[in-house]
């Protein structure tokens, strides 16, 4: 705990057998209270490795629900277990768990309700080996989103995120896509609800075992990102309404 806030790390896992142990070993358990792993119908031994590591809460999907669908299960379980701070960390060891204390502290001390680990600040993306086409695609999308949404984030596409309980109880993340654009829709919801977002410099690693989407999926993701940004702009202007920006109904997780 930090400042009497319960901290839970959620690991949305898919075929993470080779990297899960490395990721788990760096989680700072002096402040992290519990770990949740949701396995999205992996085709390897991710669940067996998780059990051997002693991960406290393991959920398995009987069918692949997608990256967004996996996160929905993660956040539902974290709220159910009484989390005050939820850290979403990929178990593919692309992002270092060593930033968890810094990210958690900013939320625990009520400085910010959302903290992102940015690969762009400090040049972490290029140093870590991000493919050039992905880097420039990231920069172009982020510039477009900042203009349409009136924000100043260094990137919207990091998979390393920390949220306060209030954020997860406010935004309707269940209305989001089950695919990769879920992350982007979630940030749009957070901005629309008026929550402030902090960013910390985050080193990153690109290697064969680290999960990454191919060029074709990247293009589909990019279209989804721009659709979300335009939807945000249209709703802010009062021209249209979209379900993802509606608040949760009473009683929903």
Q: How would you sum up the global shape? A: globular
The CATH architecture:
Alpha-Beta Complex
The main β sheet shows up as: 7 strands, mixed
Helix content percent band:
25-40%
Helix and strand composition category: alpha/beta
- Overall average pLDDT: 93
Distance between the termini: 23 Å
The quaternary organization reads as single chain
Spatial ordering of strands, largest sheet: 3-2-1-4-6-5-7
Total domain count: 1
CATH topology annotation? Spore Coat Polysaccharide Biosynthesis Protein SpsA, Chain A
Describe what you observe in this structure.
This protein has one domain: Spore Coat Polysaccharide Biosynthesis Protein SpsA, Chain A (Alpha-Beta Complex), CATH 3.90.550.10. The chain has 253 residues and is of the alpha/beta class. Helix 2 links the parallel strand 2 and strand 3. The mean pLDDT is 93.
């Amino acid at each position: 705990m930090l400042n009497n806030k319960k901290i839970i790390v959620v690991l949305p896992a898919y075929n993470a057998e080779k990297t899960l142990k490395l990721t788990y070993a760096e989680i700072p358990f002096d402040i992290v209270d519990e770990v949740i792993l949701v396995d999205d119908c992996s085709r390897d031994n991710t669940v067996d490795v998780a059990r051997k590591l002693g991960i406290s809460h393991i959920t398995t999907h009987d069918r692949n629900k997608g990256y967004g669908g996996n996160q929905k299960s993660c956040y539902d379980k974290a709220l159910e277990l009484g989390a005050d701070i939820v850290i979403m960390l990929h178990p593919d060891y692309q992002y270092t768990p060593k930033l968890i204390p810094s990210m958690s502290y900013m939320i625990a001390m009520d400085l910010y309700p959302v903290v992102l680990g940015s690969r762009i600040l400090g040049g972490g993306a290029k140093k870590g080996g991000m493919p050039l086409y992905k880097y420039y695609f990231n920069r172009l999308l982020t510039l477009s989103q900042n203009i349409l949404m009136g924000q100043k984030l260094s990137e919207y596409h990091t998979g390393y995120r920390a949220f306060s309980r209030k954020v997860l109880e406010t935004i309707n993340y269940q209305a989001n896509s089950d695919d990769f654009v879920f992350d982007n829709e979630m940030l749009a919801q957070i901005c629309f609800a008026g929550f402030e977002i902090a960013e910390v410099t985050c080193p990153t690693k690109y290697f064969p075992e680290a999960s990454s989407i191919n060029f074709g999926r990247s293009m589909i993701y990019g279209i989804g990102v721009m659709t979300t940004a335009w939807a945000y702009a249209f709703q802010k202007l009062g021209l249209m309404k979209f379900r993802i920006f509606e608040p949760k109904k009473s009683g929903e997780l």
